[in-house]
Amino acid sequence: MMKILIADDHSLVRYGLKLALHNHFTDSHIDESWDGESVKAQFALHRYDLLLLDLNMPETDSTILLQWIREFHPETKVLVVSMNDESIFGKRSLQQGAHGYLEKDSPPEELVKAINTLMNGKRYASPKLSTILINETLAGKSGNPFDRLTAREFQVAMYLAKDYSVTQISEILQVQYTSVNTFKRRIFKKLNIENKSALLRLTDAYNPG
After folding, report:
1. Which of 4, 70, 71, 96 would you call most buried, defined as having the most Cβ atoms within 10 angstroms of its Cβ?
2. If we measure between CA atoms, which residue out of 184, 186, 127 comes closest to residue 160?
3. pLDDT score for 208
4. Which whole-number Å values give the CA distances from 107 to 21, 103, 112, in the listed order?
5. Are 11 and 17 in contact (CB under 8 A)?
6. Secondary structure class of 57 (helix, strand, coil)
7. Could you report the per-residue pLDDT of 73-117, keeping only the tens digit for each?
8. Strands 50-53 and 124-125
9. Which residues contact 151 (CB under 8 A, 6 or more apart)?
10. Mean pLDDT, all residues of the chain
11. How far apart are CA 93 and CA 114, in angstroms?
């Protein structure tokens, strides 16, 4: 029996994913979580073969959660299922320990394909993400400006794009206020922008819809 955990803060999304999974993986046990703490609570009770993980859950830093799963539950396959465009978040999620990345508007058969790929010991990338990775390999560089950022800088950039203040970010990440300001300066320099409005425009440009 395959044990699956769905982590998403929207109950209708969890219901839809659960229904799709039961239709194709009838011999499976499925639990639900809605934020990082409930994910950890479920892992304290069960071992999971597969985690379907949303990147945007309340009071949850997905980067930190992925690191935690990779460190303490390396046997669990992680498929990120997110509204975030894979042009920005796909490759970075794979680098941070996810085994696959799927956009939420993908058809159910693509979800099944992704899960089967992961459970067969391989990584999953959609045709779109595969094309991006191949083109970057052939070009020898990334066309995505956000790839210039370190993991921590990317974290800070995404919070800034959501209009969090430096003080709020320092509290969330539990780092000094001056450190966040330093990250902010580095982000603006690497992305060649001057303010948060420009950061938001750049994020929208690489995350359409």
Report:
1. 4
2. 184
3. 39
4. 13, 9, 9
5. no
6. coil
7. 999 999 999 887 777 788 888 888 899 999 888 888 999 999 999
8. unpaired
9. 63, 92, 95, 96
10. 87
11. 15
Query: CA Rg, the chain, in Å?
Result: 17
Task: Please state, in angstroms and rounded to a whole number, the distance separating the CA atoms of residues 68 and 44.
Answer: 13
CA–CA distance, 9 with 12 (Å, rounded to integer): 9
H or E element, residue 50: strand 50-53
Q: 66: which 2 tokens?
A: 């992925």
* Contact (CB, 8 A) for 82 and 56: yes
Of the CA atoms within 13 Å of residue 76, those in its CB half-sphere come to 28
DSSP 3-state of 74: coil
* Measured distance CA(97)–CA(80) in Å, rounded: 10
* Rounded CA separation 177/115 (Å): 41
Identify the residue whose tokens are 């799963």.
69
Residue whose structure tokens are 């299922």: 81
% of the chain residues with pLDDT over 90? 46
State the pairing for strand pair 100-103/50-53: unpaired
Tokens of 110: 């693509």
